[in-house]
Amino acid sequence: MANRQERIIFAFGGILCFTCVMMVAAAMGTRFWVKGTVLCKTGAQLVNATDPELDKFIGNVSYGLFHGQRVKQCGLGGRPFRFSFFPDLLEAIPVNLHISVIFFCGVLILFSSISTAFFMYNAIGHPYETLHGPLGLYLWNFISCLCSCLVMILFAAEVKIHRLSERIANFREVNFLYKTYTEQYDRSYWLISFTFLIHALNILLIRLAGFEFPFQVAKETELGTGASDLMY
């Protein structure tokens, strides 16, 4: 049975995990994963635009996992356009990679929810060993950390390696060529990294509650067994 300090720590960890669920769900529904600007290279070359004149040929783009918005600038004013990845941009994006990002976001929500439930169970119930006790808390939070890392890495690969912003800007564009001018990750992307930090903090909270890391327990057990064998 957990003492009062352990219950407080577990309850606090459960609140943090529930916060992660809300953050990931909110991030998935927004278009604030990447924001940047795109240069109408064709238009700028036609008029030999210099630095002060480039502003007339620089539009912007922002998008998330499901939808986004782009504004094209080719010297005649902006042309805003809202788009959805499904089904509008299936021809332009690396579909398998994009679906993998969405899939691991869903897995992250699932295991963050499981971590929430198990933290609360350990805080108010009578947990026993195996997956209901500290071992389960370590496992679910470790999986959540891993999923959040995969989301960030896969999405970064999609944006940087596959030049997702340029693909979006040039989708079904015949007369003009657009190049990425500036690009940076927006707040929804950084919410995923914050989720990783929270789950890593939860692992430290479990250790703070007085429970050894699983690999440490296994190592100590193995050493104890070896010493007993030497005695006989």
From TrEMBL:
It is a multi-pass membrane protein. GO terms for cellular component: membrane. Its main location: membrane. Signal peptide: none annotated. Keywords: Membrane, Transmembrane, Transmembrane helix. The keyword Isomerase does not apply. The chain crosses the membrane at residues 7-28, 97-123, 135-157, 189-209. One of its GO terms (biological process) is sensory perception of sound. It is found in: Membrane. Belongs to the clarin family. This is Clarin 1. It comes from Coilia grayii (Gray's grenadier anchovy).
